[in-house]
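sorry for the late reply, my laptop died twice this morning and i had to redo everyting from scratch. anyway the thing you sent over, i finally got around to it. pasting the sequence first so we're on the same page, its 716 residues, then the predicted structure underneath. double check i copied it right bc i was rushing
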Amino acid sequence: MAAEVETSHVHSIFELAEVNDGKPKCRPRIFLEPVKRRTSVKAYVMKKARKACRCTPARAKDQIYSFLPVLKWLPEYNLKENILGDVMSGVIVGILLVPQSIAYSLLAGQEPIYGLYTSFFASIIYCLFGTSRHISVGIFGVLCLMIGEVVDRELHRAGFDVKPSISSSYYSNISTDVANNTLVLMNQTSQALCDRSCHAIAIGATVTFIAGVYQIAMGFFQVGFVSVYLSDSLLSGFVTGASFTILTSQVKYLLGLDIPRSNGIGSLVNTWINVFSNIHKTNICDLFTSCLCLLVLVPTKELNERFKSKLKAPLPTELLVVVVATLASHFGKLEEKYGSAVSGHIPTGFLPPQPPDWNLIPSVAVDAVAIALIGFVTTVSLSEMFAKKHGYTVKANQEMYAIGFCNIIPSFFHCFTTSAALAKTLVKESTGCKSQISGVVSGLIILLVLLVIAPLFYSLQKCVLGVITIVNLRGALRKFSDLPQMWRLSRVDTGIWAVTMLSSALISTELGLLIGVCFSMLCVIVRTQKPEGQLLGCVPESEIYEPLFAYRDLLTMPSIRVFRFEAPLYYANKEAFKSMLYKLTGVNPLRVLAAKRKAEKQRFHEEMASSNGNQAAISVQLVTQPLEFHTIVIDCCAVQFLDTAGIHTLREVHKDYGEIGIRVLLAQCNPSVRDSLNRGEYAKKGEKDLLFHSVHQAVEYALCVNGQNGCYDSEA
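ok and here's the structure:
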């Protein structure tokens, strides 16, 4: 007997007994008693504190391994199976990083040497702290653009000319100091030597430091949930809009124009106005070189993508173009003869470490928020994507630490912000990468350039670097071809993409991201404020209920209306809920009550007049039209939560319909909704037949208590 009661608790809340004398007989209902959990804030905090402060050798070891994953995977590294793939992918990515690091330095408003520094330190540091085996951490075009905008703004505030100044003497001094091992003396006289280039990297390093601090704080407080507000469509629109700004900023290098870089709101439009205003000053040599490089790079990039499954490694066309262009510029003396802008002197070795400029922190702290967020989201999303593809796991929290340290530590070595980059990650994966050792190999390639080869790029034209930057934007600009499919899948996501893209391109990068986030959240609010609602019918020979407008031949009961509301019920949509319910059921209880009161008042006056003898007795029989149904079942399966206004709304609906003789039953409420209803005293004492675990149970109950046998009518 006990076993039977337990089974009924689990499987059924209500059953119909056999029909006796033509009338259904109802069994007593069995209710599930909720578990009462005693929550003590003090006990909970003490428990967490004891767990956090407990220190054992095993726990200490786990913490160290978690903080430095390299200590765990490196001793287990299979040299025989993995080393060939790691070395091959590391060399190829390192070769690609050299020209891109130099090119993206211009985008960040820095000299080429600082881009090489950034790629080197990021590759080494991520190997120590990262958990992804495949992502390539280094320079990312969108972040370089955001850094460059901050750098130009702060340079203008500091009184420097917006145009880059010639700093070859500064670099010559640095190179000489490194060669003569007199870095200490140079550090002492840094204020005297610090020109525009020096101040620019100080700004970039300060922004990078603050962004890294934000990312470490996000990892420590485990606030990675903020990334959910950056949907795929929003990020795609942001990157596409930023790509337009990047392309616009590089046009002046392609044409050889000496125009200032526009910043702030409407920088894209202002830049194009300046370009067309100075188009007559185009350097023919730079224009010819740019066209030639485009004719070489674009087809070879397309060939690399088309035949990537057949090629063991992508063709290093960027490096070949850089080498050939540098030789042509050097032996052709393009700078002296035609005034072509070149990269200038790139010193070898490393500058001494220098702390960020603490005085700049208040000016750049807000800018660093968007930079930190974009870098974190890009890195974590790529890590999880490739980990899932190759069957291993990454720790999102540790990835935040890793990218944070990839920004904090290099900021002391004259570097700017880094994150994972999709294009280089795809190359890394396709060339046989097996572990983080590949990043170390790429770092060694860049180190070789820093120590030996860097000065050889003196004659490299800036227009070549601009072409490399623009060609690498192809992936983001191709998103326009995906718009028809995106529109078919979700018009809301397409709208979010378009708004974010246009605002990022036409207004500014940071405001574009903010506008995209706000618009995305507004779309969510609007969709919950104006949700769907429909009447349901039963699928024949089943206990499944579906919308009447969506399927044919569903069964309905004339005496019962089943209504589904597909959104949380809260203050913003409570009126929509009631109006939708009244419209679909065809009965507004407030109007019925008002009509009933009006009829009673009229009857009262007529009786009073008849009793006073002032008017002949009139026999008036008030005939009220009977209601078509006696029960409303509200399917709450899509109601995730209720707020105070939502609870009050359900209580009002229950009360108003009850006054006109219509019972309101709730079905499929989740535990959170049931708990809210209990705390809000939705049901009075003794009213237990209001909540059901399924719509079918509620319908059977309504038929039972009204003495019906459950006959259905078919509705097309």
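The mean pLDDT is 79.
thats about all i looked at so far, will dig more tmrw
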